[in-house]
Design a protein that fits this description.
6-stranded mixed sheet, two-stranded parallel sheet, single chain, 6 helices
């Protein structure tokens, strides 16, 4: 959804249950112009319980549900996925994709070598990849190539109220910016801004910024 709000052409593949949570999960994607290739399965739609403290920090408990059934999809081009789906689905995406980004959450050993891995400072200890973007919260992010720093950026100053979707916004903006041909420093700077905007708003999907909002906050 976040990539769609940034203006990218997006196709999402995945699974949902046949319960009421399915439509709730998909409505925001439709509004963002995302093409849906989503299969209903017998398992319940995946959900997450999110607790946010007064500083905007969160803890998330994920119930995979239908996400554990993801597989047998055809993908191509640039692919972005998280670790909430089976290893076999990620391995299949690696085989089919021209370029693959993995968001290393929920943290576990990576099943494939990705072109780009996005991880927070704790997850980064468990990943190994040629190109890794490490998010550092209010300190920003650093881009490492073969373990060597090649770019660093700090986010614009905002009042953080809910960090739930900040990582998703960061990852989506970094991927879209790189695929748009922006240089790494600019891409990382835009990604930090996207994460900051998301952290300044309540909720997950409603907090995801547009490209125009990122442009505006960077122009201040």
């Amino acid at each position: 959804m976040s990539c769609g709000r940034l203006g990218a052409g997006v196709r999402m593949v995945g699974c949902v249950g046949t319960d009421p949570f399915a439509e709730e999960a998909l409505v925001g994607l439709r509004h963002a112009g995302v093409e849906l290739d989503v299969r209903p399965v017998e398992e319940p739609t995946g959900i997450a319980l999110i607790l946010v403290d007064e500083a905007g920090e969160n803890q998330i408990v994920v119930v995979a549900g239908a996400n554990a059934c993801v597989g047998d999809f055809q993908v191509d081009g640039a692919v972005l996925c998280q670790l909430e789906i089976p290893d076999a689905a990620i391995e299949s995406a690696r085989e089919q994709a021209d370029w693959l980004c993995l968001n290393a959450a929920p943290v576990r050993p990576l099943p494939v070598e990705a072109d780009l891995v996005v991880a927070n400072r704790y997850e980064a200890e468990t990943v190994g990849s040629r190109l890794v973007a490490v998010t550092l919260g209010h300190e920003g992010a650093v881009l490492l190539e073969e373990g060597r720093e090649v770019a660093r950026a700090r986010p614009p100053r905002v009042e953080a109220v809910d960090g739930t979707a900040a990582g998703d916004a960061f990852t989506a903006c970094l991927v879209v910016s790189l695929l748009e041909g922006r240089d790494r420093r600019e891409a990382l700077r835009r990604a930090c801004a996207a994460g900051a905007i998301a952290a300044s708003r309540f909720g997950a999907q409603p907090s995801l910024p547009t490209a125009a909002e990122i442009d505006a906050i960077l122009a201040l």
